[in-house]
TrEMBL record:
This is Transcriptional regulator. The keyword Transcription regulation applies. Residues 30-163 form the HTH marR-type domain. It holds the Pfam family MarR_2. One of its GO terms (molecular function) is DNA binding.
Amino acid sequence: MARSHPLPVDPLAEAKRQWLAHGWTDAAGGMSLVVSVMRAQQLLLARVESTLKPFELSFARYEVLRLLAFSREGRLPLSSVVARLQVHATSVSSTADRLVRDGLVARHKHPHDGRAALLELTPTGRTLVEDATDALNREVFADPGISEDDATDLVAIVARMRKNAGDFADPRPQPEPLSP
């Protein structure tokens, strides 16, 4: 989604100028922030989706597979997937249905709760998510388009915003990840 011919003027700066010119001074900074973050999200998602396309994965499908691969046994209750991905249950259920259809995930009855579903990564799904992760690490995550210092600052700023919105509470110290 990056332009091959950059625009001569930053349209978001022009939008802020217009906000100020129309007397919306109190909202101009917030509008600029919101629209800037939304545009950055579009740019990053385009890179991610382009990288995942050869694997026939959307980012939503990738997230479910990656979450299952991170779990100890490659399986989680559907409700845990919903909670950890912070998306609506209907969206996760629909994504899971497509992953099951494609043989990447199996759906089982939960052993302790007959009403709940358990999602389990298949060997094919595990191979695919590892290959897709390698590609994402190489093509997107290793160089997101800003310096490491800026990335660290931006993550901290966005984390404060998310925390203030009630997205999460201060975490307890986490153990170091296990070696692969």
